[in-house]
């Protein structure tokens, strides 16, 4: 459906343009205030009108030009041909306007923006392109005119972009551009040369047959080439330009590189190098002309030389060492930026790779030997040190492989020289960057020459026999012995090798070396606390004999036994626990026969003489297990300790993930048959449908538009005036309240409502009101054991208790399609199984299920809901509607098996949304009943007739958002006795009763003693409501007794029914519906029937109230 075209009434003001540009930047589209008055296709016309106005501010014009350029894809594809013609005329008017203060900047921005639109938007024809090019050429055709040289340079750049967008566009006027380049003497000559170079490049690339030096076509007026007008490229293809002219033009270009900046030189060389290749020129000419740029300190110029080297490597024969030497010197220059120094190193590494891959062995040797001497300085930045060390490692490995032998004499010396620059790691913390760089270099030295390919199994063995590996072993042992702070890093270094399939032997060899050379040095030390992580790794490796480790631990325990004192108790417990942990690791990974003699002595020593009682008890347990339990069963018992022993070093080198049991989907698909999540309080109405109206505009913020009257919008506190173009329906956003004439009664009602709404949280800017549903999670033991009972890995433990399973670390995740916000998950540490519990589950055949009040005794709560774990589902409703909360569960079984699946959904009813209205914090406790009664009367009046308050808004808490109210009324006749109504109200709706009128009804309810702290009125005021409502307007003045009409089934006779028979009084109830709505009941209680008048400011809830009242009173 197309919307009718909207004609603009008047041009946009400066403020309107600011708001419109802000809307586009936020959502890439205009908002309602613009689309209700204008169409999107009229926006370019409005922009051109504002640009041509003389009294329009210059900054706003610049903003409009940038806006047209930024959103050209959205604005111009829908414009007409008249708008396109006007677009070209507007550019001509701006450029040819008289020069004033600041107009030069406007002209240049107009040239840039209009050219960008012309290049990016495809809706413009060739005629429009010709118009813009004609204007630009007229501006360019004034060489050496100093006053507008900047504008001419901008025009040249615009022409160059048009030539790049439409290749061959300026090919017919190439001769004129050649003349202009020779004539120009100002700094704009750079733009002229780049324009002419672009034209020549496209002529050669497109093979256009034109003359580059002379032409008979006039410069202006400009006409596009004929083949471009016809839309065919057939005439443009051929042999191309004359070769002599091309050589003459290229020679002219190569004489003017000194006229370019560094960025322009990049553009220039990007086109000249392909031209030279096409003409098959000698690359030595380019080398002689441009090689000197590598000695500059500009990274762009150096990059140009490197590009030439990669394009013509033969032309730079013998110059590789000079280029590499220059890059090495650049990386050492401390006065230039660090980024440039790092870039020079990256270039150098790329050149080394290129040289290594070449076939000349002599050149490779000389270059690699030069790079091997390139050591980092002590005061270099850390990033520079890392790159230099990588370069040294690369050169060493490449030269070592090239020589065909092992450079054993220089390996250790080179390694020591590299570590001098990062020697601070020896006393810095293990997590420092300096330490990471040092061990990263060691790792590169070790495995850089070893590939990860399985086709070369001898690589690792040859590396283990190399002198580099021997020197590195000695270095690690010395560092670990002298600097205990490096132990976590050494452990991470070894683990990285052990976890690699290719280099696992290297890691194991390192551990064997530590066991042989480091442990004897540690026997003389009394404190082994810093070396415990390393000792754990030694205990895990079953290829290392445990005798040295057990002997070291025995001497360490003997030194602890001699310690006494008050202040060493906790330290002794910690150290003793670590020793027992190492003993447990030994029991888990080694054979008992290999450990029995030495480990039994150690554990006996700790049982008898260790100062800490807890350590002695644990040592006694381990000793009994070692003596009494066979080795294989002992490993199965101690196996969980192996799975929960993470690394103590938070290293970034690698991450070791602990093994986990797989999830078995075949056993988890029917979790709901034996894991039950049930509500503590059953719903009266089990809702299986939910009313969802897209026209309500309910969003994530929880606010809606009901009957096009209710709006919730942000109040602009800083705006001092309204937009004149805003429609009337949006004027409630203004910060100034509208002055209206009203009586004192209406003013009192509005003031009471403003005070009340000021305590309701604003869901947009703060957490909303929570609705909590109490549930119980139960586990049936018998079905669970039949499915998961066989997963127990210990047959002996199966006989202990197979009828009472348990789940550990249960996590419940909730989600819902209803607007309940983000629902927090629930964690249950432990869930014990219960005997099987049968519950009669009814079949949901209809859309609604009425639960009888008589069938919900407390026995059900004792049998089904009394046990299990308590779970609270916390909702933050954006809309007070029923729905379903889907539940997914993750848990761990006793055997470690992962249990995942979905449980039955938790129903949410309309009664869950009933909350007590909020009271201001300054309201005294004694006046709370009268406050709620007055609030009920105010909401009753406003929801009944909103003609006088339709334009009133009430600020929510925080003052950033306001709400408007539009009410809806309904009525329900209940043919039930008064006793049923009173009992059901006391049982389910007592917290929401605010007032009771009528002497007979007051006496009955007071005697019950359930409903308290409300307003009691023994004499009902008949005229009070009529008087109050009569002041609200004509629509609320009719307060005659409501008469319902019942249409019989047998005939068409209408039978009138009065309100109720034997009227006893009224019960007034106020329910708050989060996030900000209300539901009001006024029950006229009779002896045999009750008439319920309903009013609400959220009319969709009426779809559920009728079923709720029937379930509450009729059954």
Automatic annotation (TrEMBL):
InterPro entries: AP5B1, AP5B1_C, AP5B1_middle, ARM-type_fold. SUPFAM superfamilies: ARM repeat (SSF48371). Residues 1065-1111 form the AP5B1 C-terminal domain. Residues 242-634 form the AP5B1 middle domain. This is AP-5 complex subunit beta-1.
């Amino acid at each position: 459906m197309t919307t009718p075209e909207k004609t603009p009434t008047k041009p946009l003001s400066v403020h309107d343009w600011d708001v419109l540009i802000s809307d586009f930047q936020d959502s890439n589209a205009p908002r309602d205030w613009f689309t209700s008055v204008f169409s999107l296709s009229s926006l370019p016309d409005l922009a051109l009108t504002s640009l041509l106005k003389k009294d329009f501010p210059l900054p706003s014009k610049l903003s409009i030009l940038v806006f047209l350029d930024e959103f050209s894809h959205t604005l111009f594809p829908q414009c007409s041909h008249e708008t396109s013609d006007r677009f070209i005329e507007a550019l001509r008017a701006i450029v040819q306007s008289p020069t004033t203060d600041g107009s030069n900047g406007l002209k240049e921005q107009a040239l840039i923006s209009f050219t960008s639109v012309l290049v990016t938007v495809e809706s413009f024809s060739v005629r429009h392109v010709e118009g813009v090019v004609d204007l630009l050429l007229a501006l360019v055709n004034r060489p050496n005119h100093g006053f507008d040289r900047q504008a001419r340079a901008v025009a040249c750049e615009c022409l160059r972009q048009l030539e790049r967008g439409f290749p061959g566009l300026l090919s017919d006027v190439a001769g004129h551009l050649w003349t202009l380049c020779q004539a120009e003497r100002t700094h704009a000559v750079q733009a002229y040369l780049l324009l002419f170079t672009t034209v020549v490049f496209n002529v050669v690339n497109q093979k256009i047959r034109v003359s580059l030096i002379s032409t008979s076509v006039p410069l202006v007026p400009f006409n596009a080439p004929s083949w471009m007008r016809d839309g065919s490229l057939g005439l443009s293809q051929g042999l191309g330009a004359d070769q002599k002219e091309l050589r003459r033009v290229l020679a002219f270009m190569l004489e003017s590189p000194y006229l370019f900046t560094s960025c322009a030189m990049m553009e220039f060389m990007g086109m000249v190098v392909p031209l030279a290749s096409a003409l098959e020129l000698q690359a030595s000419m380019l080398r002689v002309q441009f090689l000197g740029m590598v000695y500059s300190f500009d990274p762009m110029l150096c990059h140009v030389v490197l590009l030439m080297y990669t394009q013509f490597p033969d032309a730079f024969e013998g110059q590789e060492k000079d280029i590499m030497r220059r890059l090495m010197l650049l990386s050492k220059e401390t006065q230039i930026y660090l980024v440039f120094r790092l870039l020079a190193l990256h270039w150098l590494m790329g050149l080394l790779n290129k040289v290594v891959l070449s076939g000349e062995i002599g050149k490779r040797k000389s270059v690699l030997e030069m790079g091997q001497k390139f050591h980092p300085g002590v005061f270099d930045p850390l990033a520079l040190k890392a790159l230099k060390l990588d370069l040294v490692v690369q050169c060493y490995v490449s030269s070592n492989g090239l020589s065909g032998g092992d450079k054993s004499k220089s390996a250790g010396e080179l390694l020591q020289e590299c570590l001098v620059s990062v020697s601070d790691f020896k006393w810095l913390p293990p997590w420092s960057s300096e330490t990471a760089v040092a061990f990263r270099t060691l790792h590169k030295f070790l495995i850089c020459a070893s590939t990860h390919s399985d086709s070369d199994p001898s690589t690792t063995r040859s590396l283990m026999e190399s002198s580099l590996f021997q020197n590195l072993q000695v270095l690690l042992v010395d560092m670990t012995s002298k600097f205990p702070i490096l132990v976590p890093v050494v452990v991470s270094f070894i683990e990285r090798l052990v976890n690699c399939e290719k280099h696992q032997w290297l890691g194991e060899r390192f551990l064997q070396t530590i066991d042989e050379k480091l442990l004897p040095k540690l026997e003389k030390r009394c404190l082994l606390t810093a070396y415990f992580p390393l000792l754990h790794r030694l205990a895990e490796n079953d290829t290392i004999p445990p005798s040295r480790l057990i002997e070291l631990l025995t001497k360490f325990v003997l030194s602890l036994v001699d310690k006494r004192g008050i202040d060493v108790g906790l330290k002794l417990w910690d150290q003793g626990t670590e020793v027992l942990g190492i003993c447990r690791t030994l029991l888990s990974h080694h054979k008992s026969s290999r450990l029995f003699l030495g480990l039994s002595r150690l554990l006996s020593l700790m049982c008898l003489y260790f100062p800490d009682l807890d350590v002695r008890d644990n040592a006694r347990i381990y000793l009994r297990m070692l003596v009494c339990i066979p080795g294989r069963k002992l490993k199965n018992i101690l196996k969980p300790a192996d799975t929960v022993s993470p690394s103590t070093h938070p290293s970034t080198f690698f991450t070791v993930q602990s093994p986990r049991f797989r999830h078995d989907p075949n056993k988890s698909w029917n979790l709901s048959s034996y894991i039950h999540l049930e509500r503590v309080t059953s719903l009266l109405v089990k809702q299986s449908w939910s009313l969802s109206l897209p026209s309500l505009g309910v969003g994530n913020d929880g606010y809606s538009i009901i009957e096009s009257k209710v709006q919730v919008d942000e109040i602009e506190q800083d705006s001092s005036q309204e937009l004149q173009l805003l429609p009337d329906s949006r004027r409630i956003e203004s910060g100034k309240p509208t002055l209206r004439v009203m009586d004192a009664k209406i003013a009192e009602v509005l003031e009471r409502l403003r005070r009340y709404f000021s305590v309701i949280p604003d869901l947009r800017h703060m957490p909303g009101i929570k609705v909590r549903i109490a549930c119980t999670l139960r586990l049936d033991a018998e079905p669970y054991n039949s499915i998961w009972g066989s997963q127990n890995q210990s047959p002996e433990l199966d006989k202990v208790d197979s009828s009472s399973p348990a789940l550990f670390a249960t996590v419940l995740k909730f989600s819902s399609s209803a607007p309940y916000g983000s629902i927090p998950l629930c964690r249950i540490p432990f869930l014990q199984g219960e005997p099987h519990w049968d519950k009669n589950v009814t079949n949901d055949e209809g859309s609604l299920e009425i639960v009888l009040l008589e069938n919900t005794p407390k026995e059900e709560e004792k049998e089904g809901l009394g046990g299990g774990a308590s779970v609270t589902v916390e909702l933050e409703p954006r809309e007070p509607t029923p729905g379903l909360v889907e539940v997914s569960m993750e848990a761990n079984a006793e055997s470690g098996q992962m249990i995942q699946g979905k449980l039955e959904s938790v129903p949410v009813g309309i009664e869950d949304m009933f909350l007590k209205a909020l009271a201001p914090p300054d309201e005294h406790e004694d006046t709370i009943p009268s406050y709620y009664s007055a609030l009920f009367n105010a909401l009753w009046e406003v929801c009944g007739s909103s003609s006088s308050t339709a334009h009133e808004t009430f600020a929510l808490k925080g003052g950033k958002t306001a709400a408007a109210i539009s009410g809806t009324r309904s009525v329900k006749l209940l043919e039930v006795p008064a006793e049923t109504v009173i009992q059901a109200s006391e049982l389910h709706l007592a917290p929401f009763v605010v007032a009771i009128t009528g002497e007979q009804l007051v006496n009955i309810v007071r005697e019950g003693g359930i409903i308290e702290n409300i307003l009691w009125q023994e004499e009902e005021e008949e005229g009070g409501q009529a008087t109050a409502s009569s002041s609200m307007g004509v629509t609320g003045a009719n307060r005659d007794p409501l008469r319902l009409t019942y249409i019989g089934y047998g005939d068409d006779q209408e039978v009138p029914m009065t309100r109720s028979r034997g009227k006893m009084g009224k019960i007034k109830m106020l329910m708050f519906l989060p996030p900000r709505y209300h539901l009001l009941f006024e029950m006229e209680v009779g002896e045999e029937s009750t008439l319920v008048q309903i009013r609400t400011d959220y009319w969709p809830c009426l779809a559920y109230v009728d079923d709720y009242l029937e379930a509450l009173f009729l059954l």
